[in-house]
């Protein structure tokens, strides 16, 4: 990237050699997230030029001294926070995000700390696996924070990557899923992926009341909030007593969100912010995906030199689930 908001350009660099504890990955795929869109718009500060994209999948072509558990030929996936290995978040663990303040994964060869790389579920293609890093781990972390299990009720908003991952993963845990969207066509896709109840929030703007009606007044165990300022108040009202609202997106803008304080207090609602998750969370996600045989829903595939069109599709909200990017 030449600079904030400027067009991408191809660059040629030498293929690096892995040092101690490092692995060299031949990158085959990435994916477009809202986070990447914001980055490409120049809204995330960092040194320019830099290689964008937080997500990556490919195979290991070389390893440095001291690498254990991974070998040449292994298929692997990137981590969103490669320094946040496990446990609760810390400033130091979250300091590095590929594509933000350092080079990302939109390149043919990527050098990375081997212990931040995640084995790819065997049933997934690289294009599918390359969608898990940001959106998949975010959805997984939200379900973990909500303690979601069999018999619980999960509400997820829209049909973007995080929402559809949350839908599939919650269903794999035995939960009931309520999906909201402004499009009946997109809701039909959610139904095909296992959503139990569908709410069109254009025709049913008081969707929080509909959630309570579906749950016979109880509310949802977990609401995965994507909209931020536009949706957070209704998300709080849709949650059950002692339920959780996982704040995972700001699609409604970066401004302050009004919330019904008395409802949050009297209902003992837990509000928790999610910034993707740790390497361990991503590893647990991939193990669950492999066990359940989940396949990410990818509506668009683009070559790495067609990023402007991928940006247009995301800005126009034409995608359902994920936008994959292939790297030759």
On the 0 to 100 scale, the average pLDDT is 94
- Report the sheet with the most strands, covering strand number, pairing sense and barrel closure: 7 strands, mixed
Helix coverage percent: 25-40%
What is CATH's topology name of the largest domain?
A: Quinone Oxidoreductase, Chain A, domain 1
Radius of gyration: 20 Å
The amount of beta strand, in percent, is 15-25%
Cα(first) to Cα(last) distance is 19 Å
Shape: globular
* Helix/sheet category: alpha/beta
| CATH class designation of the largest domain | Alpha Beta
How many strands in all?
13
Ranges where pLDDT stays below 50 over 5 or more residues in a row are none
Reported CATH architecture of the largest domain? Alpha-Beta Complex
What is the count of DSSP helices, taking H or I runs of 4+ residues? Answer: 10
Kindly report the name of the CATH homologous superfamily of the largest domain.
Medium-chain alcohol dehydrogenases, catalytic domain
Secondary-structure element string: EHEEEEHHEHEHEHEHEHEHEHE
- Tell me the count of domains: 2
Descriptive overview:
The protein is an alpha/beta fold. The protein has two domains: 22-131 and 296-326, Medium-chain alcohol dehydrogenases, catalytic domain (Quinone Oxidoreductase, Chain A, domain 1); 137-273, NAD(P)-binding Rossmann-like Domain (Rossmann fold, 3-Layer(aba) Sandwich). It has ten helices and 13 strands. It has helices at residues 34-40, 126-129, 132-145, 161-172, 184-192, 207-214, 232-238, 261-266, 279-292, 307-315, and strands at residues 22-32, 57-63, 75-77, 109-113, 118-119, 153-157, 176-181, 197-200, 220-225, 239-247, 270-273, 298-303, 322-326. The strands form two sheets. Strands 1, 2, 3, 4, 5, 12 and 13 form a seven-stranded mixed sheet that branches. Strands 8-7-6-9-10-11 form a six-stranded parallel sheet, sandwiched between helices. Helix 7 (232-238) links the parallel strand 9 (220-225) and strand 10 (239-247). Helix 3 crosses helix 4, helix 3 packs across helix 9 (279-292) and helix 6 packs parallel to helix 7. The longest helix has 14 residues, at 132-145. The chain is globular, with a radius of gyration of 20 Å. 46% of the residues are buried.
